[in-house]
Amino acid sequence: MHVSDGDTLKANCGDGLIVVVRLCSIDTPEQAQPYGAEAREALAALVLNKSVRIEQTARDRYGRIVGRVFRGRTFVNEEMVRHGHAWVYHDYCKEPEFARLEERARRARQGLWALPKAKRVPPWEWRKLGKGKARPVEKSWRPWLLAMLVAGVLAGGAYLWVTGRLDISRWVPDIIFRFLSA
Questions:
Q1: 43-96 tens-digit pLDDT
Q2: Can you give the pTM of this predicted structure?
Q3: Catalytic residue among 38, 41, 61, 64
Q4: C-alpha 130: how far from its chain's center?
Q5: Which of 39, 80, 84, 172 is most exposed, with minimal Cβ within 10 Å?
Q6: In angstroms, what CA-CA distances link 166 with 169, 170, 171, 176, 177?
Q7: What's the rounded mean pLDDT across residues 18-34?
Q8: Is 125 a catalytic residue?
Q9: 136 vs 127: which has the higher pLDDT
Q10: Which residue of the set 30, 38, 78, 79 is catalytic?
Q11: Is 64 a catalytic residue?
Q12: 103 labelled catalytic
């Protein structure tokens, strides 16, 4: 069992078969979002290295199984909401109890509900803002260094050829050499 984020896991079904499962009816903060890492850890605590039962309810547009996940008698999707690790995904939720559990967690300021209100952005809104799973782009000097080295080699070679200190006739076909010399 591998946890991708707070609402998606990869389950090893044996014989090399691995399925990706999106927990139905809930949505957790993205990893780059406040409480994203904590939601992922909460799901890992519930399912990592444990046997689970998956009841498929649908397939999403990415080909993942969407379903209800159970560890023994524990309904994992419900536990994520009960402890404030996930929002109820009202557009897709078919679990009437989830709204009440979310409200209880909100009133008790459990999990993500303990965050300041400004940091409690539902993941579907976070994704609409284009934040998704993006990470800040790290500025690197390596591509610039490579570009400067290549430019230096080309400029040096051109200087040597123009001043007559570089004989390129061995590498350039005769017809191109006549064109360049004209």
A1: 999 999 889 999 999 999 988 999 999 999 999 999 999 999 999 998 889 888
A2: 0.68
A3: 64
A4: 13
A5: 172
A6: 9, 10, 11, 16, 13
A7: 92
A8: no
A9: 127
A10: 30
A11: yes
A12: no
